[in-house]
Amino acid sequence: SPLGRGAMLIFGLLLIGLGLTGAIVSSTFALTAIKWFALLALAAGAGQLIEAVHQTGWTTRLSHALTGLLFIAGAAAMFMLPASATYWMTMVLAAALIVSGAARLIRLPALAGRGGLRLLTLASGLLSIILGVVIMRWISPPDAEALASIASQREWVAQWGGVLGLFIALELIVQGGLLIADAFSRNMQSDAPATA
Predict the structure, then answer these.
(1) Which terminus of the chain is more solvent-facing, meaning fewer CB atoms within 10 Å of its CB: N or C?
(2) pTM higher than 0.85, yes or no?
(3) Which of 90, 154, 155, 98 is nearest to 127 (CA)?
(4) What's the mean per-residue pLDDT of the chain?
(5) Cβ–Cβ under 8 Å, residues 162 and 26
(6) At CA 68, angle to CA 65 and CA 70, rounded to 5?
(7) 167 Cβ contact list (under 8 Å, min separation 6)
């Protein structure tokens, strides 16, 4: 890993701290995540529009302008339709949990000889896959009634958005725990006497 043991330990503790904070205020964590993504999309859109102005060819200028407008439209949709944005962000993160869990399972052979870390990686990989599948099957998309007004959308987010926040928080805690375990595992390997 390009990170040193100390950096892995500090980053792992930071991720666990963020995850615990998110777990405590999971609904707020979900809304905050949606707002941050909206702000990032808005900034990306503005950047693309600025880049379009500085281009010389009309096709390049047009592609940057359309990309910028698409980002800005996405940001506006996240602000105006928080229930839909929360639902789709939850589905994307559920898919990411499944992929992340599968990636951990694929990594297992590379962890031969690192018993505790290998077992923790196996458990966290399986847990991520299970959580991703459960989220996808459990969360109901917002219906017409939930989308009828900003108040009803916020109500839907308050009911279901906590799931998004909670699972973001759990993934942060798991990632932090894996980094800490990896840091300690590397420390034990470097302290072990070399065998001839």
Answers:
(1) C
(2) no
(3) 98
(4) 82
(5) yes
(6) 110
(7) 90, 93, 94, 97, 131, 135
**Residue 169 has what pLDDT?**
82
- The burial of 46, by beta-carbon neighbours within 10 Å (0-12 exposed, 13-18 middle, 19 or more buried), is given as middle
CA–CA separation, 156 and 173 (whole Å): 26
- pLDDT tens digits along 92-150: 888 888 998 899 899 888 888 877 788 888 988 898 899 889 888 887 788 888 888 87
Spatial distance between the Cα atoms of 189 and 150, rounded to a whole number of angstroms: 55
- Gap between the Cα atoms of 23 and 15, Å rounded: 12
- Is 161's pLDDT higher than 80? no
Q: Where do we find the tokens 């690192």?
A: 114
In total, the chain counts a number of residues equal to 196
Q: Taking Cα atoms as reference points, which of 143, 145, 170, 133 lies closest to residue 30?
A: 170
